[in-house]
Amino acid sequence: MDILQGLSEGEIRRQLTIRQRIIFEGAVYHITQRAPGTERIFLEENDYLYFLKILKDIAQEFHVKLFSFTLLTNHLHLLLQITQKNLSSAMKNLFERYAMYFNEKYQRKGHVFCGRFRASLCNDDAYFLAISVYIHLNPCRAGLCKDFRSYRWSSIRLFTDITAATFVDYQQILSMIDQDIHRARQKYQQILSDSLLHIESCGISGTLSLKRVAGQIGEVIQKITKRHEEKNLEAMVEKIKSKQRMRKIEERDARKYAIGQLLANGYTPAEIEKMLGISRATFYRTIA
């Protein structure tokens, strides 16, 4: 749970690089691109589908790993990792190919995108998770949907309930939350739901500010993590109580761990002995 702890403690560090980008193999970036002024990037369903087709092709051609995305009417978000030092050429290829398609289809001239894309370097795991949550909350905050799970043009369904062959490596983010995919999805949805409610209750409206939202997400994750840890500890205590004698090493280790966690949560030795159904001698022998 180091990543969740880092978020809950506000240890989120990032580096915005617009004119002079820091590019290196293995780096993870939050990419944003938008239309100029009040223009739109996507006008109909086929536009979204075509962009996703190009995005898949680019991921394969340039060996880019895509972790999550959201396509909105006038801007988009990508969370990706480069395995070669080719971020600029990959994104240039992506946006130029879509711009050519868009201008030809709608018989127009001029810029489809508002200048150069923005790339934010993700230089720690906490920011990596925060940006994924931020990306998936954008459609709700932009008023495009009431339920983030219902927004079609994002990777959200892969994080909540769909297991399918895809070019999006959603499992890497979920595995940072829990190694069990089912539990990870439950926790991720809880983080999204609670974060959205918490952000709204704090009066943060309009376009999401990552800097402001990251702190709100951290508070929510801290609460969710604490609840899950409490549930796991309660289940462990019940299991230990059901064991009259512990002969296996792993069973004794589990009891030692449970006692340590209970002590860390402020329980006294007497309270722990009563909860686990053990004697004072067993208590001290276990923690010795």
From TrEMBL:
Pfam families: HTH_23, Y1_Tnp. InterPro entries: Transposase_17 (IPR002686), Transposase_17_sf (IPR036515). GO terms for biological process: DNA transposition. GO terms for molecular function: DNA binding; transposase activity. Residues 24-138 form the Transposase IS200-like domain. PANTHER family: TRANSPOSASE IS200-LIKE DOMAIN-CONTAINING PROTEIN (PTHR34322:SF2), TRANSPOSASE, Y1_TNP DOMAIN-CONTAINING (PTHR34322). This is Transposase IS200-like domain-containing protein.
